[in-house]
Design a protein that fits this description.
- The complex is a heterodimer of chains A (116) and B (115).
- By secondary structure, chain A is mostly beta strands.
- In chain A, strands 2, 4, 5, 6, 9, 10 and 11 form a seven-stranded mixed sheet that branches. In chain A, strands 1-3-8-7 form a four-stranded antiparallel sheet, with no helix packed on it.
- Chain B is mainly β and 115 residues long.
- Chain B starts with a strand and ends with a strand.
- Classes of the chains: A mainly beta (116), B mainly beta (115).
């Protein structure tokens, strides 16, 4: 089974802190994604990555950056956390396949971040 | 731009009753379509997917979905709901013909099950 592990289930940080959210997948997937989930808004894509050191902006990249130094690890960075970044953050990965199979994403359990 | 609409924010059904969750998408060609389920405090799990071929697809946990091109819909169904089905359900479409590997999600439908 594919396993996507997010390092923290719950995180509480102060406004202005630099925050790192870590995600590791164990299935050698090329693609990795960071989403933010808010009630009534569903999942919104922050950043994604097709390969090591590659990154692409999603729909809401402002206030976030990412790092992918190794294939299995994709980090989301909040350079200076703000209260409006309080949310559930979900990491996902998928295989670089042909056709629809490349779009099958496997999710971690999520990190609920509170910024006070 | 491609989009996914789930018109029902919250649905309550009785245990043993049938279920249909609605999903409409906007996309010119035949899209890749997905249904995911999220139990409380968990990540998303893939229920089923449609790429091509038979428009009625079977998934895990007894769920099925039907792709209707004429209605731009991909509704999720289950003949008899169990209490453990209480969760949030997300419909998703792969934009740009799936070429980028990412998904666009609907805003979700929360399912409550009455005993």
């Amino acid at each position: 089974d594919v396993k996507v592990t997010q390092s923290s289930r719950y995180l509480v940080k102060r406004t202005g802190e630099k925050v790192f959210l870590e995600c590791v997948q164990d299935m050698d997937h090329e693609n990795m994604f960071w989403y933010r989930q808010d009630p009534g808004l569903g999942l919104r894509l922050i950043y994604f990555s097709y390969d090591v050191k590659m990154k692409e902006k999603g729909d809401i990249p402002e206030g976030y950056s990412v790092s992918r130094e190794k294939k299995e690890r994709f980090s989301l960075i909040l350079e200076s956390a703000s209260t409006n970044q309080t949310s559930m953050y979900l990491c996902a990965s998928s295989l670089m396949a042909t056709g629809g199979a490349k779009n099958i994403q496997y999710f971690g359990a999520g990190t609920r971040l509170s910024v006070l | 731009a491609q989009s996914v609409t789930q018109p029902d924010i919250h649905i309550t059904v009785s245990e043993g009753a049938s279920l249909e969750l609605r999903c409409n998408y906007s996309y010119g060609a035949t899209p890749y379509l997905f249904w995911y389920v999220q139990s409380p405090g968990q990540g998303l799990q893939l229920l089923l997917k449609y790429f091509s071929g038979d428009t009625l697809v079977q998934g895990i946990k007894g769920f099925e979905a039907e792709f209707k091109r004429s209605q731009s819909s991909f509704n999720l169904r289950k003949p008899s709901v169990h209490w453990s089905d209480a969760a949030e359900y997300f419909c998703a479409v792969a934009p740009y013909g799936g070429s980028q590997g990412n998904l666009i999600f609907g805003k979700g439908t929360k399912l409550s099950v009455k005993p």
